[in-house]
Amino acid sequence: MSAAPLVGYSSSGSEDEDEAEAGAQARPGTGGCWRTQSPLPSQRLPVPDSVLHMFLDTEEEPEDDREKHGGRVRTFPHERGNWATHVYVPYETGEEFLDLLDMLLPHAQTYVPRLVQMEAFHLSLSQSVVLRHHWILPFVQALKDRMATFPRFFFTANRVKIYTNQEKTRTFVGLEVTSGHAQFLDLVSEVDRVMEEFDLTTFYQDPSFHVSLAWCVGDARLPLEGRCLRELQNIVDEFEDPEMVLRAHAEQVRCKSGNKFFSMPLQ
Q: What EC number(s) does its UniProt record assign (predicted)?
């Protein structure tokens, strides 16, 4: 009797493949009939998250959803890798300031009902400029180097003024700086030097430094200026000790680039 041939199996996955092929062949069934058997579904292991995300772009792109920011219109088109960047001094508010704002905003809304309160308060030191993602950290470091030796200072913003952006697509009710203007000019000079290093637009000539209190879409200067403006100023002037309430301390400069924030303390 002849011996059966020996069959060798490798240590690879070919054995599983052979069994799968055999499962699809005709096999004897009950009643002497032949039937085919469907292959068993293979069980797949879940793909690790590290593999699923290994090809995602490492740059976190800022969202471009107008519904999330009140219908505001971009001053420049969004492009992948471009980050809108803004340099400013944060304005820390106290309880008395918010009490004053609770008087000013409802009065202004009687003239322009669509006015809404700002989510945060600041004084701009730059226009909104565009930075490529890989320039953000060098830009911030250059700002830090400039700010490291700049002294802290007090300022007062107590003059009501109406502002619009350059495109006249947004209107703001603000408080203009009346004390500390010279220090803000010096601060802008330092920021402008960094802007020039990166070939970016510098700040406005003869700027009006201010804290925006409320804003709305569109050009609303006509109903807000004149009588409304005078009445708002009277509210400020008649508020208890407005000089102290609206006196603030500039202790740091901040830079917002896309969804990233950087803080640079003054000396």
A: 3.1.4.-
pLDDT, one tens digit per residue, over 76-127 is: 455 678 999 999 999 999 999 999 999 999 999 999 999 999 999 999 999 9
H/E stretch holding 27 reads strand 27-28
Handedness of CA 168, 170, 77, 209 (dihedral sign): positive
Return the ∠ at Cα 240 (arms to 246 and 249), rounded to 5°: 20
- Specify whether the CB–CB gap between 129 and 195 falls below 8 A: yes
Residue 48's pLDDT band, with cuts at 50, 70 and 90, is low
**Where do the structural domains in the chain lie, given as residue ranges?**
82-265
Return the exposure string of 213-231: e unless at least 16 CB atoms fall within 10 Å of the residue's CB, then b. Answer: bbbbeeebeeebeeebbee
Report pLDDT for 81. Answer: 84
User: Which are the catalytic amino acids?
Assistant: 122, 210
Model pTM score? 0.72
Topology at the third CATH level for domain 82-265: Cyclic Phosphodiesterase; Chain: A, (3.90.1140)
